[in-house]
């Protein structure tokens, strides 16, 4: 099982990564979709995680459209099921920078055929996380700047205030579908600007007051 880590070095093991599709208005628009009225969840398995401290990310050879999505990641601290938005703060304790890697060509092909698209989102190496930092208030997480640069070029820029569904509602909604276990991670969606990565690209992704990820893209 792959581990994530706090900024203190302490490790923990997520059983799953619960992701939210199209949770920023501008990203929904760039994908050609209307803003969803309810959260759209999908899951990455533990095996999708890169090891903590990874500095080189390998693009699978089977995709020609390997895209980045910067996301605010939230750690679940205790078993969580059927909780209300007002209760959510008691069930999460830390945040990190997350990268949701997507094989966009595979996703489009599968969606057009009416098939599930786990292949495009849940492959080995489909998620990278920074170290997690403890927080004292969910409210502070709802006004953070997110930024991702590729080869010093700004690709993604947004603010968590622009989420369609805010964090307490997201975690509450997820808990009514899946039991969230201690260490599970919620990826809360990405702003506009998703784009392909190729071998040799240098990426820096950061979230205000949370942290930064730096990595180089290779190919397997």
Automatic annotation (TrEMBL):
Membrane spanning residue stretches? none
Organism, as annotated: Desulfurispira natronophila
Name of the protein described by the UniProt record: 5-carboxymethyl-2-hydroxymuconate isomerase
| Single GO molecular function | metal ion binding
What keywords tag this UniProt record?
Isomerase, Metal-binding
What is this enzyme's class at the first EC digit?
isomerase
The protein's matches in Pfam families, at most eight in alphabetical order, are given as: FAA_hydrolase (PF01557)
The EC code for this enzyme is: 5.3.3.10
InterPro entries (UniProt xref): Fumarylacetoacetase-like_C, Fumarylacetoacetase_C_sf
Instruction: Give residue ranges for domain Fumarylacetoacetase-like C-terminal.
Output: 16-217
